[in-house]
């Protein structure tokens, strides 16, 4: 089976550090967590960083740090994983769906401006499938209207626009280290920000509301435990050291696919000038003549795992029923995109061969 993903870490790379953790019995809040936290900060260039249990908890804490409350409106990119909307909904705030570009798959500036009201408190821009194209344009708008910009960079570690790394563009950014991502800690996430106030809030809230006063805990607020463990941090440290190489290697594989599919009618996600895309997911729009779902089933039967691009949030059963505001471009992309396997030793030839076999046999 050609699987969709393959992690960029093996046991031997972390063996020594894991032995050290097990023999010391120091599983949490230790030197590895501190190092990974610092590494994320220096890699992204952001002033502050925090490690979390997932991008979902990172996004929740980002929203809390800017005091999002019941009935506040938060405008979000509509082509994403449901967590982007769920974190807003969970706080009793209102997720307002902004449609995306059919080329970059990212939030359209004109759609954002159309949705801004006096109740708008924040915008969550999603680097769709790791692509930050257009985020600086969105930032200009949020600055103009004095609205906080949160970057859902769940997929975007290693990506950048205009030479500025994801995690250092918006007011707050959130990463995921789920196994589908380029860098995985099993489950896990991170928050980065240049804002001292948000950082102060996060420092306390992510540690049960505690500060240390004269060597003793003082619980000055209520708080949470969304902390990453030492074991996870070790995995993160190792992968972050090679993240730029991983990005280069994935772009090479992407180019192989693009070359081989150049006359097929499959169109790759657009990456704008001066953007580095980490190729978190290698996603193409399928031609009109191809039934995407049948293609995915066919490839699966032939031992190749693929999947849809991602989801139209406004079109999921829950949000459609509650808000009835399905965005057409995001819907189109959910129905007409496919993600191909992309990692170091994947056989692009095998994938393309089976794809061509399908195209020969079936039309829509
Ligand atoms: C854009 C986006 N946001 C948020 C998430 C949630 O990430 P996590 O599983 O780390 O909570 C994902 C996960 O796939 C995602 O793709």
Write a structural description.
It contains 13 helices and 17 strands. The protein is α/β, with parallel strands linked by helices. The mean pLDDT is 97. The protein has a seven-stranded mixed beta sheet with strand order 1-10-9-6-5-2-4, sandwiched between helices. A three-stranded antiparallel beta sheet has the order 8-7-14, with no helix packed on it. It has a three-stranded antiparallel beta sheet with strand order 13-15-17. The protein binds pyridoxal-5'-phosphate. Pyridoxal-5'-phosphate (PLP) binds at residues 54-56, 80-81, 83-84, 126, 152, 154-155, 176, 178, 180, 189.
* C-alpha-based Rg, rounded: 21 Å
Ligands and ions found: pyridoxal-5'-phosphate
* Overall pLDDT level: 97
The helix count comes to: 13
SSE sequence, one letter per element: HHEHEEHEHEHEEEEEHEEHHEEEHEHHEH
Give the overall silhouette: globular
Main sheet makeup: 7 strands, mixed
Instruction: Report the β-strand fraction as a percent range.
Output: 15-25%
Question: Helical proportion?
Answer: 25-40%
The tally of strands reads 17
Order the strands across the largest sheet as they lie in space. Answer: 1-10-9-6-5-2-4
Low-confidence stretches: none
Class from secondary-structure proportions: alpha/beta
Query: What is the terminal-to-terminal distance?
Result: 26 Å
List the helices and strands and how they pair.
Elements lengths: L10 H14 L6 H14 L3 E5 L2 H11 L7 E5 L1 E2 L2 H8 L3 E5 L10 H7 L4 E7 L8 H11 L2 E5 L7 E2 L2 E2 L6 E5 L12 E5 L2 H10 L4 E4 L2 E4 L10 H12 L1 H18 L6 E2 L6 E2 L5 E4 L6 H10 L9 E2 L4 H7 L4 H9 E4 L7 H14 L3
Parallel strand pairs: 2-4, 2-5, 5-6, 6-9
Antiparallel strand pairs: 1-10, 3-16, 7-8, 7-14, 9-10, 11-12, 13-15, 15-17
The structure holds pyridoxal-5'-phosphate (PLP).
Pyridoxal-5'-phosphate (PLP) binds next to α3 and α4.
């Amino acid at each position: 089976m050609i699987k969709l993903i393959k992690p960029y870490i093996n046991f031997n790379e972390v063996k020594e550090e894991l032995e050290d953790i097990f023999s010391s019995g120091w599983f949490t809040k230790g030197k590895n967590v501190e190092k990974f936290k610092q590494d994320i900060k220096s890699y992204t260039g952001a002033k502050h960083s925090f490690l979390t249990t997932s991008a979902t908890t990172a996004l929740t804490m980002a929203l809390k740090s800017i005091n999002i409350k019941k009935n506040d409106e938060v405008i979000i990119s509509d082509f994403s994983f449901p967590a982007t909307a769920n974190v807003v909904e969970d706080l009793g705030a209102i997720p307002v769906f902004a449609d995306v570009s059919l080329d970059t798959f990212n939030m359209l500036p004109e759609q954002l401006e159309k949705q801004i009201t006096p109740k708008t408190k924040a915008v969550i821009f999603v680097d769709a499938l790791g692509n930050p194209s257009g985020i600086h344009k969105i930032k200009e708008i949020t600055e103009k209207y004095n609205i906080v910009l949160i970057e859902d960079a769940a997929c975007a570690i290693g990506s950048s626009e205009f030479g500025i790394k994801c995690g250092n563009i918006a007011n707050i950014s959130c990463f995921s280290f789920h196994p589908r991502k380029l860098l995985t800690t099993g489950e896990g996430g991170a928050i980065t920000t240049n804002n001292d106030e948000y950082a102060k809030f996060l420092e306390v809230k992510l540690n049960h509301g505690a500060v240390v006063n004269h060597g003793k805990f003082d619980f000055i607020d209520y708080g949470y435990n969304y902390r990453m463990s030492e074991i996870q941090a070790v995995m993160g440290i190792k992968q972050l050291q090679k993240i730029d190489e991983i990005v280069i290697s994935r772009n090479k594989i992407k180019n192989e696919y693009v070359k081989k599919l150049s006359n097929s009618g499959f169109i790759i996600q657009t990456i704008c000038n001066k953007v580095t895309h980490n190729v978190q997911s290698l996603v193409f729009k399928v031609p009109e003549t191809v039934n995407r779902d049948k293609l995915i089933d066919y490839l699966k039967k032939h031992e190749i795992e693929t999947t849809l691009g991602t989801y139209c949030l406004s079109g999921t059963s829950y949000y459609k029923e509650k808000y009835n505001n399905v965005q057409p471009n995001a819907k189109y992309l959910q129905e007409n995109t496919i993600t191909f396997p992309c990692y170091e030793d994947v056989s692009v030839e095998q994938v393309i061969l089976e794809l061509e076999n399908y195209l020969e046999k079936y039309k829509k």
